[in-house]
């Protein structure tokens, strides 16, 4: 994998931008797809949000100052794009974000791209009940195995706050899974 500093320089230089962007997409598309997919739940929606994320990255690379890792910056863009997408969808349908999320969980069973079993569906239902920030933190820590420092950079939150939110999310999920 190309060094991040080199990739950033190549992304900002007009003569290497196109090739560097192809490298960037190749290196990050799968991780960003799954991050987005865990937020929006639907494959087609995740593809759309991923495309919008890369468009924003391409358009705004000049403004990237290197104060965080490129990966963190792109994750922040992907997270914001996914959350905006959910808000737009729920507004269009005239439902709350929570109601829309519940609909998406219900639709997972019919999604040909969802490969989970009943336990995975129940876990997704439990995650859907979490407040937005806890949901993001849980997904990044549990599924993506990101370190608290990385999540802190992406969400611009203290590590202590993240640990507390993750702990609360786990307790709520455990409680939800014990019901039945």
Task: Compile the SSE list and pairings.
Blueprint: H1 4-12, H2 17-40, H3 43-60, H4 70-93, H5 97-108, H6 118-128, H7 132-143, H8 148-155, H9 159-178
Q: Let me know the largest β-sheet.
A: none
Q: H/E element string? A: HHHHHHHHH
CATH fold-level label of the largest domain: Rna Polymerase Sigma Factor, Chain: A
- Count of discrete alpha- or pi-helical segments spanning 4 or more residues: 9
Beta-strand percentage? under 5%
List low-confidence stretches.
Answer: none
Return Rg in Å: 17 Å
User: Given this structure, which CATH class of the largest domain is correct?
Assistant: Mainly Alpha
CATH architecture of the largest domain: Orthogonal Bundle
Structural class: mainly alpha
Shape: globular
Give an account of the 3D structure.
By secondary structure, this protein is mainly alpha-helical. The protein folds into 2 domains: 1-115, Rna Polymerase Sigma Factor, Chain: A (Orthogonal Bundle), CATH 1.10.1740.10; 117-180, Arc Repressor Mutant, subunit A, CATH 1.10.10.10. Helix content is 77%, strand content 0%. It contains 9 helices and no strands. It has helices at residues 4-12, 17-40, 43-60, 70-93, 97-108, 118-128, 132-143, 148-155, 159-178. Helix 4 (70-93) packs across helix 8. The protein is globular. 26% of the residues are buried. The model has no long low-confidence stretch (mean pLDDT 89).
């Amino acid at each position: 994998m190309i060094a991040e500093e080199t990739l950033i320089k190549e992304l900002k230089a007009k003569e290497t931008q196109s090739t560097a962007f192809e490298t960037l997409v190749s290196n990050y598309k799968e991780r960003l797809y799954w991050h987005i997919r865990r937020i929006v739940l639907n494959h087609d929606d995740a593809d759309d949000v991923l495309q919008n994320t890369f468009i924003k990255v391409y358009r705004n690379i000049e403004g990237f100052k290197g104060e965080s890792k490129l990966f963190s910056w792109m994750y922040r863009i992907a997270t914001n794009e996914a959350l905006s997408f959910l808000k737009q969808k729920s507004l269009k349908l005239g439902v709350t974000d929570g109601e829309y999320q519940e609909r998406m969980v219900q639709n997972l069973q019919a999604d040909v791209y969802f490969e989970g079993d009943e336990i995975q569906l129940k876990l997704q239902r439990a995650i859907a009940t979490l407040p937005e920030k806890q949901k993001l933190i849980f997904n990044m820590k549990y599924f993506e195995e990101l370190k608290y420092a990385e999540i802190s950079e992406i969400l611009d939150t203290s590590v202590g706050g993240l640990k507390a939110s993750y702990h609360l999310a786990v307790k709520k999920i455990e409680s939800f899974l014990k019901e039945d």
